[in-house]
Amino acid sequence: MSRALPISLLCLLTACAGASSTSGPVPSSAAPVAASSRPERTPLFEAAARGQLDRVRALLAEGASPDEAVRHGLTPLIISGYAGHVAVVRALLEAGADPNLPNDDGEHALITCAASPAANEIVPILLQAGAAHGHVDQHGRQALAVQAQEGHHGAVTALLHAGADVHHVDGAGQTALHSAAMRGDGRVVGALLAAGARPDLANRYSARPLALAAARGHGEVVQALLDAGVSLEGETESQLTALGHAVVGGHLEVVRLLADRDPTLRAGRAGAGLGLAAAAGHADVVSLLLEREAAPDGLDERGLSALMWAAVRGHLDAATRLLDGGATPDLQGPDGVSALLLGAHAGQTEIVTLLLDRGAALEQTNPQGGTALRAAAEQGHLETVRLLLARGASRHATDTYGLRPIDYARQNQHTWVVRALSLP
Known about the structure:
By secondary structure, the protein is mainly alpha-helical. It has 25 helices and no strands. The chain has helices at about 5-20, 45-50, 55-60, 75-85, 85-95, 110, 120-130, 145-150, 155-160, 175-185, 185-195, 210-215, 220-225, 240-250, 250-260, 275-280, 285-290, 305-315, 315-325, 340-345, 350-355, 370-380, 380-390, 405-410, 415-420. It is elongated and about 100 Å long. The termini are far apart.
């Protein structure tokens, strides 16, 4: 559950904020009421939602049931916990409110109060009143995971002391540690690890807490998990290791932490770390990986180097750092592609300029005899065509099909490119 999860609670809180507080008949029985016959709201529910302690006490004294439910199965206790009205929560419990009554989504007060900053205070009160920490909502989540997801350290500690199951797995295959890792709260993660949480357990998507924290740049959590001896090898469903996720996210300090622990710099089957950083344009991460001796001309499973990725995506700073770090400007992959050919095809004029300035061969061809000029002309990139012509590229060079750059421009109806190539 997130702070905005129970839409039913939000709707009723809004309704209560603008509703009249006039009193009416007060139910005197806590007997279950069919969902279809529940009232929209009641005087006690409104008072609890608003945190009106004196009115809550008065209504209870008049015989109102502390467990009367309104639309969506919401009780005064659930709404007051959600809104963070600690004193009202106490008053309702003292009047005999059942802390284990769920709403229609299976969420009871121990779960819904996670939406409030007062959860650290409310959870111990509910536990003392007999709230069961083992209840699950419609997603299979227990209170421990929901409170961990919201970063409530005090609530998590209270639940752990009460015996909450740190190993419970919800419907998505996640434990409280997964939730805390995504949140990025180091104290909550530390408490869960101290209670015996398993740091290497993967969720339904093969994601372990380390990858979840790394993908979000939570350095403190990453450090705690590394100190707990977590493995660096696991890949998520997207075929990335924790390092790969940190690289893609551009989280420099997390990349540094993980690279220090894993000198192989293995980022996963989705690509080499250096290539992932270049493709995303994270120049600082590129520099860090080069410092850690990543191979500047290494090719990924697609046969592309980091420089090729930077070229096709137009990341000038990353490309410059790769060249400064030893990348070969006119390196060609197994399919004959190169940074220059890819950059020209994508119309990345600044990249093409950089590569030519750094020594890339102007008339380099792919296996079909296509040059950078042909690639730019075929795609209609006028500025790139003009640059290449200014640098001396041959407009008359033919490929293995006997076609010139202007022929491709005509085929694709790039009128301005045809005119540029027709000039003497």
